[in-house]
Write a structure and sequence with these properties.
mainly alpha, 68% helix, binds benzoyl coenzyme A
Length: 323
């Protein structure tokens, strides 16, 4: 092929890709895609997968200290669901031609991120409820639109994940409702957890739109469907009435209903704190990565055994095909 013919062919592929996006149809792994689209998806999906796996730690710490057998079973199931979400997402990333071992390596070397929210400590059992209510609530706001993301495997993984996140959010809220019907000490624990998790939860949506380098391109490619600020606003509108029903105060003196706009006004999160946490300087970053690294090393024999088993199965299948 001449250089000019090569350029025409590339141009054709690109036009077909753009047309698929503009018709709101899905890009699938077999389809041609621009290198930037593939890289952006790997970055976002891997970061999302890592968040699910690292996100098992703050709540997992409470499994052995759950206040009843029922609460222990619920928390166990929730943390296991998060492992499952991580696996669907790593599988979605693998369809882009990168394997999970490489992604884990990038996480452990600090070359890929995970959500800032999981770098805060869980100090009481009320934190388990507030994580369900706020963190899974924020996850739902952010992820329901991702069910319409332009990349097929990511969008499909999101459908199941969102169903489970919705159950997680309700279990958190139900736990808090139970505590609010309890003693004064329990109500204080809930309010304290709300005070500590509110601002970090708002930061989960990312930097403000005018400081979000990836948003414009990700929205043009329909990977992201809404901007960071738009989703943050939706979360606040959704959560304020739930806080009133629960009987807790959200720690923001600027929070009020704006009749004219039909939305709540609210204060600005401390985005310099977000930057610090993302750069590795949050309260628990070192501990979270160290724990992940230890779990990865402890799991080496499982991966080796699984690979040996898969190789044996493949060899047996080849022998049977020849016989
Ligand atoms: N934390 O240009 P921007 C869960 C990074 S799991 C850390 O706006 P983008 C759950 C960003 O990556 C929740 N980093 O980026 C699990 C970028 O850096 P790089 C995880 C953040 O991608 C267990 C830079 O800042 N959810 O719900 O357009 C239990 C500039 O940002 C954060 C997802 O991953 C942050 N908060 O938008 C319970 C959802 N914010 O990569 C619950 C999928 C920003 O260029 N991800 N950064 O080095 C997304 O929707 C988008 O990636 C984001 C960021 C909205 C997070």
């Amino acid at each position: 092929m001449t250089e000019a013919a090569g350029r025409d062919a590339e141009h054709d592929l690109e036009s077909r890709f753009e047309a698929t996006i503009s018709r709101d149809q899905r890009i699938e792994p077999r389809d041609w895609m621009p290198e930037g689209y593939r890289r952006t998806l790997i970055r976002q999906i891997a970061q999302h997968a890592h968040s699910e796996i690292i996100g098992m730690q703050p709540e997992g710490e409470w499994i052995t200290r759950a206040p009843s057998l029922r609460r222990k079973a619920i928390l166990f199931a929730k943390v296991q669901d998060e492992a499952g979400h991580g696996l669907y997402l790593y599988s979605a990333a693998e369809t882009l031609g990168i394997d999970r071992a490489e992604l884990t390596e990038r996480l452990l070397e600090g070359r890929q991120k995970y959500s800032s929210i999981f770098n805060y400590p869980t100090l009481s059992y009320a934190d388990v409820g507030v994580i369900g209510w706020f963190v899974d609530g924020a996850a739902i706001c952010n992820q329901v639109p991702l069910c319409r993301s332009s990349y097929g495997p990511y969008a499909r993984a999101m459908v199941r994940i969102c169903k489970e996140e919705s159950f997680h959010q309700r279990q958190g809220y139900e736990l808090l409702m139970t505590m609010m019907r309890g003693t004064d000490a329990q109500r204080e624990m809930v309010q304290d957890a709300v005070d500590r998790w509110w601002w970090p939860s708002l930061m989960m949506f990312g930097p403000p739109d005018d400081d979000s380098p990836n948003s414009a391109q990700s929205m043009a490619w329909k990977i992201k469907r809404h901007s960071n600020d738009e989703l943050r606003r939706r979360f606040v509108d959704m959560t304020v009435p739930q806080a009133a029903k629960l009987g807790v105060t959200l720690p923001d003196p600027e929070l009020r209903w704006n009749e004219e706009r039909g939305h709540h006004d609210f204060g600005t999160p401390d985005f310099s704190e977000l930057k610090e946490v993302i750069s590795g300087n949050g309260p628990c970053n070192t501990e979270r990565i160290e724990r992940r690294r230890a779990a990865h090393e402890e799991g080496a024999w499982v991966r080796a055994a699984a690979s040996a088993h898969a190789a044996k199965q493949a060899a047996r299948a080849r022998e049977e095909a020849v016989a």
